[in-house]
């Protein structure tokens, strides 16, 4: 079991840390998706990312509704919660995206959900988000948009 945990941790670490520098994978997601405007990043630990408001599960109430992008980066906190509390945390976080905004759940988060990638997609559907295909080169994420996506994307 220890080997399995160690292997899993190495896999997550490879994705979570860019080889070029020590910036967490959230910076890569922000760049890959061209996130601009109001960006919220959630994680297990407090951090600072230029151009984004970063919160933990304990400080989520500090974030107010109306974000253009919400990147859900919880990991270990999800394993400490019962299923109901985990769902509430995910729903409360998704609720902070504005109409026309996007919620992004990296693999490093959805791997901690009961039903993995399928679970993340289902949670988005339940919250009324439209699940979209990830951008080219970003296959390890689940993303969904709320409402007016065509307007936001200039389609």
Structural commentary:
The chain is α/β, with parallel strands linked by helices and 155 residues long. Helix content is 38%, strand content 21%. The chain is built from 7 helices and 6 strands. It has a 6-stranded mixed sheet, with helices on both faces. A hairpin with an 8-residue loop joins strand 5 and strand 6. The chain is globular. The relative contact order is 0.14. The C terminus is likely disordered.
Percentage beta strand: 15-25%
Cross-sheet strand order for the largest sheet:
2-1-3-4-6-5
Broad shape: globular
Structural class call reads alpha/beta
Overall radius of gyration: 15 Å
| Total number of strands | 6
As residue ranges, the low-confidence spans are: 4-24, 150-155
- H and E string: HHEEEHHEHHEEH
Describe the main β-sheet briefly: 6 strands, mixed
**Helicity level:** 25-40%
Mean pLDDT: 83
Q: How many helical stretches?
A: 7
Short description:
This protein has 7 helices and 6 strands; from the N terminus they run H-H-E-E-E-H-H-E-H-H-E-E-H. With 155 residues, the chain is α/β, with parallel strands linked by helices.
How are the secondary structure elements laid out?
Blueprint: H1 2-16, H2 25-32, E1 39-43, E2 53-55, E3 67-73, H3 76-79, H4 83-94, E4 97-106, H5 107-110, H6 116-126, E5 130-132, E6 141-145, H7 149-153
Parallel strand pairs: 1-2, 1-3, 3-4
Antiparallel strand pairs: 4-6, 5-6
